[in-house]
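User: I'm preparing a small set of examples for a lab meeting where we compare how different chains pack in three dimensions. I only have the primary sequence for this one, and I'd like the structure in C-alpha cell form so I can line it up with the others. Please keep the answer compact; I'll paste it straight into my notes.
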Amino acid sequence: MKHLKLIALQICLLITFSTAHAQSNQKVDLSKALKVGDTFAPPSSVQLMRGEVKKIDWKALENKVVILDFFDTFCGTCIQSMPELQELQHKLKDKLQIFNVGWQDKATLDKFYATNAFLKENNVNLSVIFADTYLKQRFPHQSAPHVIFLFKGKVHAVTGNRLVTEENILKLYNTGTISLPLKDDFGKGDLAGQIDNTSQKTREGVWITGYQDGVPGESMRIKKDSISGLIKTSFYNESISNAIKFTWAKIKPGNYITRAERRVFNVKNPEKYYDFGNEGDVWYVKNGICYERLDKMQRADSVQARIVLNDLHNFFGITSYKTMKEIECLILKPCPVKPYEGKALEGAMSYMGSAILATMTDMGEQFPPVLDLVKSKEKITIGPYTNLEEFNEQLAAYGIEAVIGRGMQEVLVIEEVN
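Assistant: Understood. Below is the C-alpha cell output for the 418-residue chain.
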C-alpha cells in the first residue's frame, strides 16, 4: 500500500508542476473578458520580441486573420504546436498574422528560446508578445494553449490550438465568419438546470448529453451540490471510454495508466468511443459526452461508481470489465549490472523503484505499455533519452533491461450488448 501511495504522489506532483500557473487559485476578474462577436479593443502598446513584426499596427492587421496563441514555457502542447504555426505563418503570410502571447518577462523567454533544441531544429521564429497583462485580461484562461481568432476588429473564436488550421483560417478570411468549439475555462456544467426546467426545485435524476460547448472537460467528480443539497456525480466533455475508465478507477483502482493499448473495444465503431486519431476538440464535439446524477443519499465512492457504471452501460447499450490479456509491452527484466559510462545526465529524474519508473515511462507513451518484472524498490535516476538503446544504457547501471515483447497485462474491455 505504501508503494502505491508513492506512485500516486509522484504522478500528482508531475501534474501539479505542469499546470501550476494554469491552475492558479487566484480569483480572476471576468468583467473585462471579451466574448465571440465582441469588438476587439487593442492595447495601446505591447512589448515584442522575435519574428518579423517590429511594431504592431492593429488597424492594418484588421485585413488579416490574427491569431493570439497564449502559451507557457512549461506547456509541452504549446511548444509542440509552434512549428505548425510557423508553417502556417510562412504559407499564409499575406492573410495571417500569428502572435505567441506570454506572461513571462523577456529574460525568461530569451533563455527559453536559446535552450529549446526542438524549436531551434524546426526554425521557429514567431512574433512574441511578452510580459502581457492586457490581453490576458480580455481573454482570461486557466490552461494553455488558449487561442483567439480575430478578423476585421472582431473576436471570431476563443478555442483550442488544434483548430488553428489552414482550412479554418481561410474560411474566416474568405467568408468573414466561422464557428469553432468554445474554450471557456470558467464555464460550468449544469445538465440538470438546462434540461429539467419543469420545476424550480432541483430533483433527483440522471442526465446524459453530448458535447457541451464552453464547458471545460472534467473527469469524474462526486460532491455535495451547494444549491440543492443533493449529492452530485458528474463528468463533462469526455469520451465514453474515459467515462468508463473513471468509474472503474473508483471501483477497482489500478497502479498503471489505462492507455489506448490497454483498452479493448468489442464494438462496431471504436472511433465513437476513443480519440484514436488524437484530433482533440474536433473529435470531442462529435463524440464527447456529459453526465450528471443527483442523489439524496451519500454513498461510498466505490458504491456510487457502480451505480454510475450501470447508468452508462444501460444508456449506451454496452458492458465493461477488466481482464488479463497478452499484449505488446516494454518489459523491464533483470540483467547483469553494467556501470553507466555515457555523458552527464542533465535534467535527470529519480524514481523510488521500478514500479514508479514504469508508470512514469507509460505516461510518456514513447514505448508500448510497460510490464515491470523487476519489482525493485531501489532509487533509479534516469536522464533524457531519445530511443530504447539510450534508455537501456542508463537502466543497466541498476541491473535492468527493457525489451519489446509480449506479456500479460490487465486491460479494460468495452463490449456492445447485442
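A couple of notes for your slides: The longest strand covers residues 318-334. DSSP finds twelve helices and 16 strands in the chain.

User: Perfect, thanks.
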